[in-house]
Amino acid sequence: MPLYEYSCHACGSAFERRLSFSNRLQAQACPKCDETETELLMSAPARPGVTAGGQAASVCPSTGQSCGCPMPGMN
Length: 75
Description:
Blueprint: E1 3-8, E2 14-18, E3 38-40
Antiparallel strand pairs: 1-2, 1-3
C-alpha cells in the first residue's frame, strides 16, 4: 500500500498513513490532536535506497563509504 502524507489544520503537525489509493481522500484523524480537518500533501515518489540527490542512501558522496554525514555544499 502507498504511504500518504497529511497535514493537520488544527495543530499543524504532519503525519503519514499507509492507505489504499481509493481511501487516500477520506478524512484522516491527526495522531497528535485527533482532529479530522487534515489535508493530503503532495510529495515526490520514493525510490528505495536512493536519496533526493540521486545518491545511494547509505553511501557518503565524499568518500564512497557508509556513513551519515551531510553532502558537501548542500548546507
